[in-house]
Design goal:
The protein is mostly helical. It has 17 helices and no strands.
Length: about 375
């Protein structure tokens, strides 16, 4: 009986709690009184559980969101600690300390990155005399060429006629030029029986010997259909001397050509228009040289031919009889035509070089613009 009565009382206490939760629209004091009445109403013997008390307190706190919490009062639950008043507030910096910190930050920012003032160039502008001196120094430095640039220009101008002359000689010492000579109208025939085919065959052996690495026996072992040697011992010895001169000339021409190419590559990067000026000077030197040699050869070909051989060969080693093979293959007319071809080739190429490198107005303006690219853009 008591148990049933206690259960009914507990049920009635729970019902009271639910009624408190539903009355959220009432003021704070009314909700607290209702909760207290519900907890204390007709419960003489059985107290509500701890969980029921916590639920009632939370419901009362939720129904009053604007309630203020007093110092020293527990916030939530029995085990919560009460709030305590702060013993001392943190000290704020003074105005002098704030100003000192700002000045230090500005100084550090100026040390890391400092941009010039827009008016700094105007206020700190040097005098007009100093500006003129600086501009004159800059102009002089821009117009002054490096020493190596001048050296390469001089070398190209000096080497150009030599390389061009060696190239012309190389064109003469070829089977093509030999074929043109033997087949051109007016070329003298051999009065001792060599046909054009014989000349072409034996002449090609001679030219090949000058360009290959064979020993003198390359010509000494050459015989006619009857087994007779084509060249005598003196002729073979002279051709060996000619081969030495030709090989040295070709090697020198190749070395000078390599130096010219290196110089042109350097001038192309360091001197705007430097190659053109070097070739212009070289073409003038070539024309002067070839014209002087041409006039001397035209006024006395025999003397010129003799002086040329005396420079490179020993006396008595380059003179032969008219019935010797070298004279029959390469008569005087052959050497005359060779000289004309060499002179004409050098003259034409040098003239074309002069025309293409002539310092016209447009080319001078291009050189000036290349020296001062900033002025052109301004």
């Amino acid at each position: 009986m008591n148990t049933a009565r206690g259960g009914s009382r507990a049920l009635s206490g729970t019902t009271g709690i639910l009624s408190i939760v539903s009355e959220k629209s009432k003021p704070q004091d009314t909700a607290q009184d209702a909760a207290a009445d519900a907890l204390n109403e007709d419960v003489p013997t059985v107290a509500p559980t701890v969980a029921a008390q916590k639920v009632a307190r939370r419901a009362a706190a939720a129904s009053a969101p604007t309630a203020k919490i007093k110092l020293g009062e527990a916030i939530d639950g029995d085990d919560a600690e009460p709030m305590r008043a702060a013993g001392k507030l943190p000290a704020l910096p003074s105005d002098e300390e704030i100003a000192l910190a700002l000045s230090q930050s500005v100084a550090e920012s100026d040390t890391v990155h400092k941009e010039p003032s827009p008016t700094g160039l105007i206020t700190m502008r040097p005098p007009a005399d100093d500006v003129a001196k600086r501009q004159a120094a800059m102009e002089k430095a821009a117009n002054t060429k490096p020493v190596l640039t001048r050296v390469f220009q001089v070398l190209i101008a000096i080497f150009y006629p030599i390389v061009l002359l060696v190239l012309a000689i190389r064109l003469v010492t070829s089977s093509l030029f030999l074929w043109v000579e033997y087949h051109r109208p007016g070329f003298p025939v051999d009065s001792f029986g060599f046909t054009t085919d014989d000349r072409m065959t034996y002449g090609s052996y001679t030219v090949d010997y000058l360009l290959n690495l064979a020993q003198p026996r390359y010509l000494a072992d050459l015989v006619d259909p009857f087994g007779k040697p084509i060249f005598l011992a003196g002729e073979v010895s002279h051709m060996a001397d000619v081969k030495t001169v030709i090989v040295m000339a070709f090697m020198a021409g190749l070395a000078l050509a390599i130096v010219m190419v290196i110089g042109m590559m350097y001038l192309a990067r360091r001197s705007f228009g430097g190659i053109r000026r070097a070739l212009f000077a070289g073409s003038i030197a070539t024309l002067a040289l070839i014209i002087g040699i041409g006039v001397f050869a035209a006024t006395g070909w025999e003397r010129f031919f003799t002086d040329f051989h005396e420079i490179f060969f020993t006396d008595g080693t380059w003179t032969f009889y008219t019935d010797d093979t070298l004279i029959r293959l390469f008569p005087s007319q052959f050497w005359t035509d060779s000289g004309i071809f060499i002179g004409a080739f050098v003259l034409i190429v040098a003239s074309l070089t002069l025309a293409f490198t002539w310092p016209t107005k447009d080319r001078r303006q291009a050189v000036t613009a290349g020296r001062h690219p900033g002025r052109r853009s301004a």
